[in-house]
Amino acid sequence: MNDESQRVLWLREGLAQAGLDALVCALPMNVLLLSGYWPIVGISMALFTADGPLMLLAPEDERELADRGRGQVRTFSPGSLNEMTSAVEAVREPLREVMRTLGLEAGRIGYEQGAAFEPVSYASMHLYGGALPQLLQDVAPRCTLVPADDLLTRQRTVKTPEEIARIRTACHIAEAAFEVGVQKIRPGLSETEAAEAFCGSLSSIGVGFRDERALEHPGGLDDPGVTLSRVQRAGGFVFCMSGLNSAAAHGAYARSRCKRLAPGNLVLTHCNSYADGFWTDITRTYCLGAIDDQKRTMYEALFEARAAALAAIRPGALASSVDAAARAVLTNRGFGAAFKHPTGHGVGFAAIDHNAHPRLHPRSQEVLEEGMVFNVEPGIYLDGFGGMRHCDMVAVTAGGYELLTAFQLEAMAI
Which of 57, 271, 343, 350 could form a cystine bridge with 360, CB 3.0-4.6 A? Predict the structure, then answer.
């Protein structure tokens, strides 16, 4: 079974279990899930039916990217010099025609309803939000709308081999950017300058990147769903927090400041990058100059916790057991109170979504499955001293896990 039919099969099984005739999605991460096409400005839609074709509605200037997806593409113009219109008005008639063509005028339609973390795909994005159900009801008054957030969350949680390959590629691009960035770190740089040393390469290396290392991956080219197509869109965000600032890196967001890096500083570098819509969540912590006894003790505890967490990953294990493994090590090492966040969360269709499954949380009851992709990020944060975190990306395999970020895996003095 090739990868495309695997995702299609899972989606159709999901529709059958939910009693739905179709899914209509507009959030870019869900359009990507359904079609393999990652919209730019957020006005595209994907219509996936239980037994018919996948249809994509995309603005004319995204046709090149939409054609790389799995669906049949119907383009529309979001505006012209002849009239002023909104995105909702522009898509209304094309959506009506596609709904009619697919025979969905009176169907049971799953749609996005609840709150969501949506990765940024452009400087400004359109999100239909509450306008989507009203729009669907307007174009198909006899259809029955059913919230499908749980179904979509479940579908995003387990990745196909092709999706894992694309996440792997995003990780390889980030690895190359980290290798470039670490060569530029030195005392005197500001945190913002240090972050930029890593961030710039995400796009310069990433756009046009052809992941030759896929040739080395066992079975990578034996699966007809795994391809070596060049990356069309790549970039991301990098933040640097150093010295005393690194102690605050456990917060909900990272922040680079104008503070200058100084000898002896811990330099925590956090990266969220993407390649054609698939995201990474990676952190490395460097030491400017020799590693003193206190920092070495922290590094040793951190990497022992990381090893314990990785050893706990396998199909059938509780997500909470991975968190417990890392937390027990840091507690035994005297850093339990300094580990101030869960051990990880799902990554792939988004980077920063702390609700994405599986959640490696002390109270999680989720069971790990083959194909899940998430981060493992033990951390130590000491107010008045500094903080460190090591965040890797992993995929659950039949025999345990695959480390997707196999680089800079030890304490680094620079």
Answer: 343
